[in-house]
Amino acid sequence: MTQAPARPVASGVAAKLVGQSVPRKEDLALLTGTARFIDDIRLPGMVYAKILRSEVAHARVRSVDTSTALTMPGVLDAMCGADLVGKVKPWGDLMQDLLVGDHTPFAVDKVLYHGQELAAVVASSRYEALDALEKIEVDLDQLKAYVDPEEAIAPGAGLIQEGITYEFGDGNIFDRYKVRIGDIDVAEEEADVVVRQRFTTNRQAGAALDPHGCIADFDSFTGVLTIYSSTQSIYMVRDVLADVLQMPRNKVRVIIPEVGAGFGSKAQIFPYEVIAAIFSMRLGRPVHLVLTRKEIFQSGTARNGQVRYAELMCKRDGTITGYRDYIIHNTGAMSVWGNQVLHIGTNVGMLPYPIPNIRVDGDIVHTNTTPGGALRGFGIPQMIWAKEQLVDMAAAELGLSALEIRSRNVVRPEVFPFRTPMGHVIDSTTIYDCLQKSAEAIGFEEHTAHPTPYEGIGLAVSMKYTSCRHPSFDTDQSAVRLRLETDGTVTIYSSDVTHGQGHATMLSQIVADVLGVGFEKITLAQPDSLNSPFGLGTYASRGAAVLGTACRMAAERLRERLLTIAAHVLDADIASLEMSNDRVYIARLPDSGLYLEILAGIVAYRTHQLPPGFEPSLEATATYDTPTEREGADGSGNLSVTYSGAAHAARVRVDPETGLIRIVDYVMAHDTGVVINPLVVEGQHQGGFLMGMGMALGEDYLYDDEGRLLNASFKNYLAPTATDMPELDHNFEIPAPSLTIPGGQKGAGESGTGPVPAAVGNAVFNASGVRFTSLPITPEKMLLALREKERQGLSVFRFPDDMPDFTGPRTHAEWPEPDLSESVDFDWDSFDEIEDLELDDLGDVDGAP
Amino acid sequence: MRAFTYLTPSAPTEVVEMLDAHAPDARVIAGGQNLLLGMKDRSDSPAFLVSLGGVSELEGVRAADSGELVIGAATTYATLARMEFTGWHAEIASVCGNLADRPVRTMGTIGGAACAADPRYDIPALVTGVGASLEVLSAQGVRTIEPSDFFLEGGGTSLQPGDLLTAVRFPATEAFTTVVFEKFRQRVFDAALASTVLALRVGDGVIEDLRLTVGATTPRPTVCVTSTAGLIGQPVDAIEPVLVADAAAIEVLGPETSNDPPHLRYQRELIKSVTRRALIRATAIPRS
What we know:
The complex is a heterodimer of chains A (849) and B (288).
Chain A: H1 27-31, E1 47-53, E2 59-65, H2 67-70, E3 75-80, H3 81-84, E4 110-111, E5 117-123, H4 126-133, E6 137-142, H5 149-152, E7 173-181, H6 184-190, E8 193-200, E9 213-219, E10 224-229, H7 234-245, E11 252-255, H8 271-283, E12 287-290, H9 293-299, E13 302-303, E14 305-314, E15 320-330, H10 338-349, E16 357-365, E17 372-373, H11 380-398, H12 402-409, E18 418-419, E19 425-426, H13 431-442, H14 444-449, E20 455-465, E21 477-484, E22 490-493, H15 503-515, E23 522-524, H16 543-570, E24 577-580, E25 583-586, E26 594-595, H17 596-605, E27 619-625, E28 643-654, E29 661-671, H18 678-697, E30 730-733, H19 756-768, E31 770-772, H20 779-792, E32 797-799, H21 828-836
Parallel strand pairs in A: 1-12, 10-11, 13-17, 15-16, 22-23, 29-30, 31-32
Antiparallel strand pairs in A: 1-5, 2-4, 2-6, 3-5, 7-16, 8-14, 9-10, 9-12, 14-15, 18-19, 20-28, 21-22, 21-27, 24-25, 25-26, 28-29
Helix pairs in contact in A: 10-11, 11-12, 11-19, 15-16, 18-19
Chain B: E1 5-7, H1 12-21, E2 26-29, H2 35-40, E3 48-51, E4 61-63, E5 69-72, H3 77-82, H4 90-96, H5 102-107, H6 110-116, H7 122-130, E6 133-138, E7 141-145, H8 147-150, E8 164-170, E9 178-184, E10 194-203, E11 206-215, E12 222-224, H9 241-253, H10 262-287
Helix pairs in contact in B: 9-10
């Protein structure tokens, strides 16, 4: 007779997992190719939809005729914009406050950008759908396209978005932004040095390898529309989709497959989700609609490009006293997130300097280009690109080093929390130490003393918000529900989509520590709007801090329940109980106690053992909303719960024969607070760096004069690849635990991106004497700038400003002024008073109907 | 991608018969690294694909009695990159091992690259640079085409429907003392922005033959004649890399004007740089 092997019993107290580089739970499926992404899903009876997109950027739609397409083999249905007028509600703002109805499933009267949806067909196979697309007859009347945002707001420019009344905008200005802190005029008068420069930034794609796409599956019996979508936020998709279709929200179910990255580019609803839903509802069959790479480049969102007329004021000792900027923010033909990018990126982008006097005016402008939107860094890389180069320019005028001027200015309060003039509440930071560490590790002093020709060093510092209260909605919450299963395993329910952030690993580490349950016994359920607790989604570096806090709170509530039961069963004092190794035990006796599965069994099946009156539940739920502020009328406010510091130092080598720029060494010193999993956080910083590097050195949307996107392919969209990466073996964490977040975490996902373009720009200047004011810095621009600089015999040169063919303003005397209409000074405080008025009085309020 | 019929011949003559039978809707597919991309986005949609996958005669390398190196058109880059060639032929392996990425090198073929005739690809420049000839089979028989007749001045090739490129014939090792290929591309997997092939034969320190070809900047590779004129018969030391490179840039793209667009100015600078590098590398070897 064989004897069963003895059950292994862990003895002692298990080590805590938070802070450990636990290998990620997610990786096995990814590395073995068994993870199921959106395009891997096959439902019975599934049919395929394809979208016809505009080949021109700006046109009036005369007609779209799908009648021939409908007769093609295999075709089941077809539709175009005119078919849906009055049947679906336009959308445009975040979540449910649909203030701006600028989004429709298809262009109806006007095409606004190259690649906009014109019509769609659904057929038995994707090939038949593509065949039918070719039979759709489109009659367009092409209009002049506006690619350049400054041209779009020049007097006499044609209107892009027609028929939409903007709250604060005017013409092609979709919205306005302003900051008024201190007194900028006094700062300018009293400054010893003022540096000024016009900077521009590029459009950048999210370029997630997993494509945008969805499968819609309408059940005509239950009336439930199920959408499997590769998105970052299930409730954003659910709430907007239900509103667009005017359906009850509990009849729209959003489920998430494995999502292979998003970087912000999947943080909203897209027309394809609406189109697939309508087809599925009309046919009663599952409809597959996954975009091609070309479609994603054309119609996914891209980083907002900016033109900045930026000025920095300093005292002789290097103290920064003022910042003034006029920003023209290109948000493309339409944008859900575009104005938020400018607000938050500029507000938080002031850090890490507590600048006392700030004046910013921003015009958020429509162009006939790909919609702008969220992308890793969310406006901060653009702001840092301008500001951190101005800091170097000021240092040069003052005879200070790049390190000295930053050391003097980075926020370094004696007492925390510290409120900056802009309103940020810095609850803790080591940004000063990060700066010193990065400069030391890159060899700043050594290089300054003994420079190598065509090799340069550049510094840049930034602080990134950790989650954030967006001006457009007054919430910053995520929730977690935990369930102890009857075998002692634990399931985590959350609606925040993990797509590279390692939620399953990170949340399991938290739960394992609080409940003493084995890491391997914890599972993260797929987000599903029918049974996941409400949360905003995964963006804004909010996972570890906001979701992690909700998870810790839920785990502590569950722990409390389990300890109460155990105290009753063991007849012990609850204060004497501990949890570890899957059991509850009396503190001095870690090898005894009650297994979690026994406790779960009591709750589920043997309730007479429960304390009298105890609710027999194995679940605990918690929601965490950050203690953040709404943006004030002057632009100030503490939008973020805490701030992650990033000090970067780049060493670049410029090839004077080809213009190729190699980042030969790169140092990142970060303050990410309490790091739950160093492996995950380091990966986030590396990925963040890579996207910053792409923005700095190669990526851009190239348009012709008619607004056609020329490089909608990985073949000629120059995203960096593995071979372009430096070793990145100088990564430092200098943690200052957040004093606001209960576990001390800070956001990790985006702090690696913010400083990169500026650090590279400063290093390129140090290496070559060329100050790039425009992104990206391609080899072509580098070499042409060097040749022109040699030709003119200059030691310092600006590109493109000092090139002979440059047509923009060369000095600040020629800079444009923001057109400040009265609506800019709209006073929210008086708006509150208006709300208090009786309805009868409304007629007297200026501008009210 | 549109529907197509996939044909699997086993001999070159069979390929030609199929191409003729289904002209003009038939296309040869070897590695498919260009054609499939075009078919996927429907910019290319042949009704018949004639696969070279089973035509083993078109794969591999042999030495002809003349000393020429005959490379079957369906030989992959990866195969060539692994070859241990002698003399300047080693540069063929080096070029094939340093282009595109590993999956493309595994599938892509030397003949496919020649037929695609993308000016930014390395093979058209190499073939032109060393004066290799292209062996073509059709119903009318075999013919051998010089690069200047194969690659058309405005881009593309002179191949007609029914033609099958069967081999690339590289000159014998004795033809050159050294061949140097230099190129520049932004990312390692990108096609070249400028490339230069320098083929040099030296005897007793004197230049017996010199062929300078610039690729990637014109619709077909440009053989530089005026900028290298007078060098044959001179000692190797007489080559002044900077002067020749500057002259080559003008010969390939014309003289500089004040309203040249930025990309043209950049191409000119790159030609100078890669050509200078090729000249320095090539002349260093025979000197030592």
